[in-house]
Amino acid sequence: MLNHIPTSSYGILQRTISESAIDLAAEQISSLGYATIPSGIGIEELNRFQIDFDSNRDQYIKTFGLDKLTYTDELNIIRAPLTHGPESFLKIATNKILLSLISKLIQGDFILNQQNSIINPPKKQYNQGAWHRDLPYQHFTSSSPIAVNAIFCVDDFTERNGGTFVLPASHKSTKFPSPEYISKNAIQIEAKAGDYIVLDCMIFHAGGFNSTSIARRGVNHVYTIPFLKQQIRLPDNIDTSGLSEDIKKLLGFGYSEPKTISEFLDSRPRT
Ligand SMILES: O=C(O)CCC(=O)C(=O)O
Predict the structure, then answer these.
(1) Exposure winner among 34, 78, 210, 214, fewest CB in 10 A?
(2) Which residues pair with 219 in a beta bridge?
């Protein structure tokens, strides 16, 4: 039969076991560097989030000014919305399904390093439309990920509206490949609104060209081992009322570097 994938095998001593959809996503991210998972968020909550996204953007432009955001090439990004937006931004950063996947990928503790709303504007170039790693300027490989990113799809990500392109398995290579390799091997991820596109941060990726007349919205999250500094210090910018200790830890509370030797010594557990 055409396209019938063989299921039998021989000469195999070791095999990965994936018992759930999350295991399978983790297996795919380890091998290929990318996967999509549903968030479990229902349509009404998603619709409310779409409204939250736009009102948060409007407020952000009022706060920081169109001029400054334009000349810093920041017009299509809203930095750290969970620190100044509705609670729904914290909710998508702490989604249980997502965190269970991240905990299968990053060994030990991890923190939210950054959250950024991303707008892929209609029929225009934008800064995330260039190939990059989410740990930019880095050319190493690691045996297990130290950083994973998760783009929450606020809208459907499609071929037409510039769904994210990835170079499969490029998190395993140190160098950025040749243009010929890219044109042969890049693939575009299509995902539904409410899904997360989860990437090993070292995979090369880029937003596609949005040829529709409507902006395509997403919220990118980067989760890292606590050794990597946050893009913006979240503990200094977030209201802690009502936050559990686990969420505070995820937001980086307790991981800021001590300012002095005395502060370091005071932070050591007593023997
Ligand atoms: O907008 C996209 O599709 C990609 C976003 C991205 O590359 C990023 O936020 O790092």
Answers:
(1) 214
(2) 117, 152
Cα–Cα distance, 32 to 200 (Å, whole number): 9
List all residues whose CB is within 6 A of at least one atom of ligand 1.
Answer: 118, 120, 128, 134, 151, 164, 205, 207, 218, 220
What integer is the mean pLDDT of 225-252?
96
pTM over 0.85: yes
Q: In sequence order, what are the residues at sequence separation of 6 or more whose Cβ sits closer than 8 angstroms to the Cβ of residue 44?
A: none
Query: Ligand 1 mean position to 105 CA, how many Å?
Result: 20
Of all atoms in ligand 1, which is nearest to the CA of residue 157?
3
* Ligand 1 atom closest to residue 162's alpha carbon, by position in its atom list: 3
For residues 224 and 128, is the Cβ–Cβ distance under 8 A? no
222, 133 Cβ separation under 8 angstroms: no
Ligand 1 atom nearest 163 alpha carbon: 3
The DSSP code for 169 is T
Q: Are strands 111-120 and 77-79 parallel, antiparallel or unpaired?
A: antiparallel
Q: What's the whole-number mean pLDDT along residues 75-89?
A: 97
Mutation pick for ligand 1 pocket among 53, 76, 77, 118 (CB with most ligand atoms within 8 Å): 118
Q: Would you call 194 helix, strand, or coil by DSSP?
A: coil
Residues 6+ apart with CB under 8 A from 31: 169
How large a percentage of the chain has pLDDT more than 90? Answer: 96
Which residue in 165, 60, 178 sits closest to 115, CA to CA?
Answer: 60
Measured from the Cα of 116, ligand 1's closest atom is: 9
Enclosing H/E stretch for 224: strand 216-224
Distance CA 108, CA 225 (A): 8
CA-nearest residue for atom 9, ligand 1, is: 220
Looking at residue 2, what is its pLDDT? 65
> Is 21-264 assigned to CATH 3.40.50.1820?
no
